[in-house]
Structure formats: C-alpha cells, structure tokens
Amino acid sequence: MSSSSPPAFLQPALANLKHSPPPDRPHVTLTFAQSLDAKIAGQHGKQLILSGKESMVMTHWLRTMHDGIIVGIGTALNDDPQLNTRHLPPRLDSQPHSLPRPIILDPRLRLSPECKLLKNFQAKTGRRPWVLSATPTDDDRPDWQQRYDALSQAGASIVQLELSSNILPVPVVLEKLRRLGINSLMVEGGARIIDSFLNACSFIDTLLVTVAPTLVGSHGVAYGTNIPTGISHLRHFDTQAVGNDAVIILKSEKS
Ligand SMILES: NC(=O)c1ccc[n+]([C@@H]2O[C@H](COP(=O)([O-])OP(=O)(O)OC[C@H]3O[C@@H](n4cnc5c(N)ncnc54)[C@H](OP(=O)(O)O)[C@@H]3O)[C@@H](O)[C@H]2O)c1
C-alpha cells in the first residue's frame, strides 16, 4: 500500500463519488470495523481498537474522500472521536488533507461542549461540527436552551429538524444534508446508527466492513440484530487483505 495516496482498491470501490448523487440524498458509504464474531465494541460499549494500523490508515483515506462523516451521539459520548485524518502522512504538495464535516446525530443535544470535535474546531485543527437535533419534547425542555447555548458557544452548528422523535429518520437526515451541500457521506457508527442505515439499506451505495482477526465474545456490542432479511441490492464487490484485516466491500447494484 502506497503511503502517500489512498489504497488503489478504494478508487473503483468508490467510483460513484465522481458522479452527482441522487437529488434527495448524498452518496452513502457505511463503514465500520468488527471482530470475527461481529462485535463492534467490548462489554458495556468499551471502545476497542479492532482495526490494525494499516486498515486504520485506510479508514482515514476514506475520510478524505467524503464531504461529511456521521456518528451517533452514543459514539460521540462513549468514544469522544476526532473523525480526522491524523494517521495519514503529509501530502506531497504540503497541502492539508481534505477533512470531512463531522456530523453528530444528537436529537436531544447530549453532546458535551468539551468534546474533542469542538476542541479541535476551536484549535483550528478540525472543521466546525454539525449537530443534528430534533424539536425538544417536554422532557427535554427545562435546560434545552442552556445546552443549545453551551454547544453553540463552543462552536457547534446546530441543525434542528422539525421532528419530535429520538430517532432521526435516515431519509430525513439524508435529504437535509444534501440540501446543506453534503454530496458524499461516510457513516461510521455506532451500533444503533449502523442498524438504522441497514434498515434503510436502499440508501446505502457502499458497505465497507473491516473484519479484524479477533474474537470479542458474547459480552461485546453487536450490530445487525434487527435488520430485514434479503438485503439483495448490496452485492459483493471486493475483498482485500489490509495488514492482518480483511476489508470486505459490497456495492449497491444501483450505484
Ligand atoms: N467498531 C466500529 O467501527 C465502531 C464505530 C463507531 C462506534 N462504535 C461503538 O459503538 C458504540 C456506540 O453505539 P450506540 O448504539 O450506543 O450509539 P450510536 O449508534 O453511536 O448512537 C445512537 C444514538 O443516536 C441517536 N440517533 C438519532 N437518530 C438515530 C437513528 N436514526 N438511528 C439510531 N440512533 C439515532 C439516538 O440518540 P438518543 O439516545 O439521544 O435518542 C441514539 O441513541 C460504542 O461502544 C462505540 O465504541 C464502534
């Protein structure tokens, strides 16, 4: 794998990104790392570094290829991710790598104003995070404005969807992001977000899963426990060995 450019196999796998997305949504790449026994985290959600160094670098290259990157608030609170490209070598032309817009699905504004995404934005090493929220319910209302102000002051751009639901429906999120100029979207997890996207699988163009040669055990966090059978439009496209991991790519036959 060349260290100064993305792994060659990513180009054909993501050839759809060169074309305009559908009018009502971005191109969607769902990607995550799992153990051999299909777990994405340890007991009680403990963050596990499942990917080896090489596949971690591949994921950071993937980030450079997308306009936006989504995680759910469960992941934002649990892992405090940075969603940047810090594992990549400097570009040959000394320009910075393209960073995707961090987007957090956070219907109830639970994100911490102290999170790394906001710290990085304040330090000018990260892009301004977008927080997609819902309309506050009566339960949320008492300190909603306080949380809204704290996040805004820390630098978050809060995009309030006209819904009072704790689950932001995938088609609504995608349509909103497309209208906000996101043409390509990487979805990184966690478990509930993966399940929601697999449940709305007609919106997925590319599914890229890194399978690490390790077993987590039954206490780990699983995904896909509630997805419909017969997701037939996602077909095998490529399998690559990346370091000790297997990277398995499925593509929509429509894209
Ligand atoms: N291995 C990997 O590649 C990987 C990647 C990322 C994360 N993870 C792991 O995943 C775990 C976190 O997963 P999680 O399931 O707890 O949290 P999550 O999927 O990150 O976030 C779920 C939360 O997002 C909000 N949400 C808004 N719209 C949603 C929608 N359409 N579908 C689902 N949720 C929606 C809800 O917030 P409210 O609760 O406020 O309503 C929901 O509880 C952590 O253990 C983390 O380490 C692993």
TrEMBL record:
An MF annotation (GO) of this entry: 5-amino-6-(5-phosphoribosylamino)uracil reductase activity
Q: Where is the Bacterial bifunctional deaminase-reductase C-terminal domain?
A: 26-247
Q: In which pathway does it act?
A: Cofactor biosynthesis; riboflavin biosynthesis
Q: What is its EC number?
A: 1.1.1.302
Q: Name one GO biological process term.
A: riboflavin biosynthetic process
Answer whether the UniProt record assigns the keyword Oxidoreductase to this protein: yes
Q: Which UniProt keywords apply?
A: NADP, Oxidoreductase, Riboflavin biosynthesis
What's its catalytic activity?
2,5-diamino-6-(1-D-ribitylamino)pyrimidin-4(3H)-one 5'-phosphate + NAD(+) = 2,5-diamino-6-(1-D-ribosylamino)pyrimidin-4(3H)-one 5'-phosphate + NADH + H(+); 2,5-diamino-6-(1-D-ribitylamino)pyrimidin-4(3H)-one 5'-phosphate + NADP(+) = 2,5-diamino-6-(1-D-ribosylamino)pyrimidin-4(3H)-one 5'-phosphate + NADPH + H(+)
Q: What does this protein do?
A: Catalyzes an early step in riboflavin biosynthesis, the NADPH-dependent reduction of the ribose side chain of 2,5-diamino-6-ribosylamino-4(3H)-pyrimidinone 5'-phosphate, yielding 2,5-diamino-6-ribitylamino-4(3H)-pyrimidinone 5'-phosphate.
> Which family is annotated?
Belongs to the HTP reductase family.
For this entry, the protein name equals 2,5-diamino-6-ribosylamino-4(3H)-pyrimidinone 5'-phosphate reductase
Show the taxonomic lineage.
Eukaryota, Fungi, Dikarya, Basidiomycota, Agaricomycotina
